[in-house]
Amino acid sequence: MEPIKNDLFYSRLPVNEISLSDLLTEDHLFYKIPPNWHVVITDVKNSTAAVAGGLHETINLIATASIVAVLNITYKANLTVPFFFGGDGATFILPPTPLESVMRALQKHRDNTKTNFNLDLRIGHLPVAEIYERGHELRISKLRTSEFFSIPVVLGDGLMYAEKKIKGPDYLLAPFSLTEDVLDLTGMQCRWDRIKPPKNIYEVVSLLAIARGSVNQSLAFKKVIDSVDAIYGTVQNRTPITVEKLRLKSTLAKIGLEVRARMGGFNIFNFINTWIRTNLGYFYFKTRKGRVYLHNLVSTSDTLVIDGRINTVISGTAEQREMLVNELNKLEAEGEILYGYHISKESVMSCYVRNINDKHIHFIDGAEGGYTKAAGVIKKKNILR
What we know:
Blueprint: E1 15-16, H1 20-23, E2 31-32, E3 38-44, H2 47-52, H3 56-76, E4 83-85, E5 89-94, H4 99-117, E6 121-127, H5 128-133, E7 139-146, E8 149-155, H6 158-167, E9 188-189, E10 203-211, H7 217-232, H8 252-263, H9 268-284, H10 288-299, E11 301-302, E12 304-307, E13 310-316, H11 318-333, E14 337-344, E15 347-355, E16 359-366, H12 370-384
Parallel strand pairs: 1-7, 8-12, 11-16
Antiparallel strand pairs: 2-7, 3-5, 3-6, 4-5, 7-8, 9-15, 10-13, 10-14, 12-13, 15-16
């Protein structure tokens, strides 16, 4: 009997052009992930300590590189797959066809990460069928968040179960044989300086929220999103990224970091090429095409991730943040959610630029490891409870 061929499951999902709050209440717009697909996870071990040691931008870049590695493989296979940036790692939901190629590439990326940065990158995969067999849920939808950008929205605790399993002491990953061309990080960039929020009085908040055990996840998430929307406005209004605050950073250290991550080590020719391209960017972004790119950059910035949790980076005043914290405290006291947040004065951005005209994605985190520190707050709350 031929295996089921459903590689295009995610590609064929309709894109919903409604608010996230409305989507969360429309159960029929979410679809069960095929059981023959796999969850793939990357995660920098001991990222909290590494962030405290000042390596937050390096960790963001390692997470971004894992996304670039996977997307370059799926792009060549004409596949679109859901992925989620988490600051210190990434999560993917993949059909079986590219799985072996993906795991080979991530194994090479893990080896390079250890060699170049002395950091341990955890990688692993879990069949969706096992997630279902263990009684966990995994449903997905697509949401348009801007003219140029749509995101996957996942409900259920399936990804959190996979993460716990892969991070557990009993998880073993069989090694793959590697070749020289197994890892392709073409398009990965980290050339932007830390980004100030739109207004000088604003701050950047990295927020994570999870639904508590037996509560209705969709309704709990809707209450969180409704509070964020009411206090901060739309995704576009609360974005920490604006064209006016973007600054290229062409320091040798910054370029060297990108080259080491992308090339698996220092390469003088690639270093010089990257330095030249970065400096030419100052002139390119003054052209009409360059200005269009910058405006599209803001629209394709990944500031909202729903992967069975709410992960978002927002910008506003301290008063707005205090109002939001009051609302979230009420939801937490009522046993509906656990949440954590980190406040910073800047955000950081790493990029995947496959095509400078229309194929680029920009991954956003709060400075000083915003997502990692917010996750640490939730972890402490779970321990206390």
